[in-house]
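Hey, I was hoping to borrow your eyes for a little while. There's a protein on my desk that I can't quite get my head around. The fold is given in discrete form, as structure tokens running alongside the sequence. I'd be grateful if you could look everything over and explain what you see. Here's the protein in full, and shout if anything looks odd to you:
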Amino acid sequence: MPKASQLPIEDVSKILNLKLWVFTESDGLFLHFSFDLDCIEDMLPALLAIARNYVPYITLPISIAIGIIGYNLEGLISDRYTPTKKLSIEEERLERKLKEMENSDLTTESLKSKSFVPKTIFDRKTSP
């Protein structure tokens, strides 16, 4: 502390017990704050009420910072090359259907033969 005359300006807040002292010296003006730590217990409910009301404004910048950090870490860690598929899903399905059609018999029976109609009533409901 510089040795100079101390001029107490005023008690800024009785709740905070915050005092401002001005020191004058030939080099310039010096400011000194004294703060009583016992008043934090009195201020804690008020600070929590303020924080509760302004939670979105407090958490949004924090979440943005965490998101930016996570995005950049993921870019450093992960592999950026993802190979593309040679064929689309629709083309793969069409090829699979063509292969199934090549292996199956495509001839159909004539409707005149009526093979789809059972000859007797007992043939209608056969158990599998």
Notes: The CA atoms of residues 9 and 21 lie 6 Å apart. DSSP finds three helices and three strands in the chain. The mean pLDDT is 73.
